[in-house]
Structures are given as C-alpha cells and as structure tokens.
Amino acid sequence: MSTQSPDLPEMDVEGYEGTFAQVIDEQAKEFKTIAQTKLIISLIGEANAGKSATINALTGRKLSEVHPIAGWTKQIALHQYAENVFIADTPGLNEMRTLVLGAQAKEFVEKDADIILFFVNAASNRSPEEANAFKAILTLHKPTIVVLNKIDTIEAEAIPMVVADLKQRFGYDLIVPISATKDINVEVLSNKIADILSERSKELFFLKISKYKEERVTAWIRGAAIAAFGIGALPVPGSDIVPLTTLQVALCMRIAYIYNLKVSKGDIMKLLSSSVTGFAGKALYRNALKIIADFLLGPVGMVSSSAIAGTIAASMTWGLGLAANVYYKSGMSMDLGEVSAIYQTAFKSYLTQSKESYAPTPNGAPKQPVGVGKPG
Q1: Dmax (CA) of the chain
Q2: φ and ψ of 189, to 5 deg
Q3: Cα–Cα dist 268/183, whole Å
Q4: Structure pTM?
Q5: What values do phi and psi take at 124, rounded to 5?
Q6: pLDDT per residue over 106-154, tens digit each?
Q7: What is the rounded CA–CA span in Å between residue 136 and residue 130?
Q8: Sheet harboring 85-89: ordered strands across?
C-alpha cells in the first residue's frame, strides 16, 4: 500500500522563537522562587548506627569533611552540602534515654526539617528507649524513613525478621535495610528519599547532592517524552507550541539545576540549536513530519497524522533529555557536536522503537500506536 506524508502546516518560526523566550523567562522566575527555599535532612539515631557513613554513601562526600555551620545549638550539627541544602546531625539515642529528644533539637526538627532519617543498627539489641524515641519522632509529623543500617553484619536470612520486628516495635512500615559501607541498597534509600521529597517539591535539592541522580533524571525524561506525545498529538495545528516548548525548557533547566548549573537563555538556546533545532529544523517536530513520516509509516499504510506528530515530539524530547543530561553533567564543557550526535542517536533509536508499535497485526491492520515506550 502506498503512503504519503500527512499535509500539515509549517510552524511559524518567529512564533516559536518568541514563545521560547517567554517560556525561558517564566521558568527562570520559577527557579528563582525555588532558590529562596531550602532542604534540611535530619539524621537521628545512635552514634554507632552509621549516620555519617550513610550520608557519605548517598552523596559521595564525607560528612566529617563538610564543616558544621557555627552558631547552632550543641545538640545540632548543621552541615551545608550545596546551596540551600543542609544535613542536620542530632544526638545519639544514648543521650535521649533521659530526654527522649533534647528540647532544642526537638524544636529544630519540628520547625525546620523536611525529612527525618531515623537510624537503627541492625547488629544492636533492641531497647524500649529506641522505640520510645522513634514514637516521639512520629509526633513531629515529619516524613520519616527508618534506615536499618549495617545489615552486612548479620545473616542475610535474619534481615527480614529484623525488619518485621522493627515494624512491630515501631508501629511503622517504611523501613529500608542497607549497608552503607558495602553499598547495599543505598540507591534504594536514595530513591525513597527522592520520592518523598518529590511530593514536597524538594526533590531537586536532594538530587543536587545525591550520587544516584541519573536514574531519576532518566525517569524525568521518560515522563517528559510521554507528555510530549500527548502534546504533539493535539488535533489543532500550532496548539502544541507553547506546552511543548514549556515542557522541553523546564526539563533542561531541571537537569542543569541538579548539576549545580545556573543556565541562561543563551545556554539553553545553544543546547537546543545543537540538538533539536539543529537536527530537525527550528519548527521542531512539525517540519520533521514531512521528512520522517514515510520512515515511520513504512509499509503499514497511513496512520493518523496526530499519532505521527506525537511520536516525533516524544522522540525529540527523549533525545533532548539524554543530550542535556550528558551536556550538563560535563559542566557544559562537552563539544556541542558530540551533544548533537548523542541527540541524533537517541532520537533515531526512540523513533525506531516506536515504529515497531505501528507494525501490522495478523489481520493486516496496524496496531494502535503506543507513542512512547522504554528504549533500551
């Protein structure tokens, strides 16, 4: 069956560039607002429970080498890990046997902490004081993760029993067993922290200091590609320019932010020019339809132009996200020609995989296009 490219109007290039400038300004205002807030992660638990080792494993930086900020109560050692990102180390549980939690420390955690990591040594005997201290923490109504550390010091078969025992003693289910020194389940803990902070709109702060940021970035890119498919499939030509530009610019700015980069309008335009605009034309995916539609359709026959537009929008967003991650991870020092090559490879790979969703079924009809998948 013969195919023909869908007859879609060209996008107004000047309109795109004007929208781009507007979106950059709007996103810059949002990030300025973000920069006026802060993230405080509070560490609570016995001194031998591996609080420092866990932070070292999560961030790749030694807590002991990040000097505490002067002027805080003796019960709190507040360490600044990045701009507006702080880790607060509180007293060990041994000091809580009479205090449960020091008054000043309690006031600080209750007022300022965004998330609490409550540390338990897997090899230690459980005590009533430990359970009482944890229940006192719960009264602060802060997001809390119980970190069962040093699981490498006990038999693997015993770990589920220790977790079950803690759940019963604490009356709490969010317990993450790890070994900070052996790097066991540390990434799981990182993702749990990021999940909780995402709900509080503070995931970006944590990812600035996390060693495990790239898995989260990939999830962002995949989500953006899915959203781009929906935007690109809009039935009204040109109605996609603002939401798609907003989506892609916001994605780039978020990725730059977690690599501690403050990017300008020119920086992002340079990235887009070397990838999306350089490969497919300034009209983004709309102009690319006429170039790629035959490839995407192949021998299957005509499918809806909106599905093609959505697929190309998703492919471009996927490629842009991967290229942006590599570029910003390099501190924007990578040659833009290399960035363009990364984009093109990712774009074509995504598009090729999406093409498989259009393959004919046994009765000869094309499958319902899935738009986006999980590229290998």
Answers
A1: 82
A2: -60, -45
A3: 36
A4: 0.80
A5: -85, 155
A6: 778 888 899 999 999 999 888 888 888 888 888 889 999 999 999 999 9
A7: 10
A8: 77-82, 85-89, 39-45, 115-121, 144-149, 175-177
- pLDDT tens, 82-108? 888 999 987 655 554 444 556 667 778
Q: For residue 65, how many C-alpha atoms fall within 13 Å in the half-sphere facing its CB?
A: 7
- How far is Cα 56 from Cα 50, in angstroms, rounded to an integer? 10
Q: What's the rounded Cα separation, in Å, for the pair 131 and 169?
A: 6
Neighbours of 38 (CB within 10 A): 14
Compute the distance between CA of residue 358 and CA of residue 296 in angstroms, rounded to an integer. Answer: 8
Phi, psi of 99 (to 5 degrees): -100, -20
Reported as a single tens digit per residue, the pLDDT across 255-268 is: 999 999 988 888 88
Phi-psi region of 141 (alpha: psi -120 to 50; beta: other; left: phi over 0): left
CB-CB neighbours of 192 under 10 Å: 17
pLDDT in tens, 231-251: 877 765 555 677 888 888 889
Structural domains of the chain, ranges and CATH numbers in brackets:
13-34+212-356 (no CATH), 38-201 (3.40.50.300)
Other CB atoms within a 10 A radius of the CB of residue 351 amount to 21
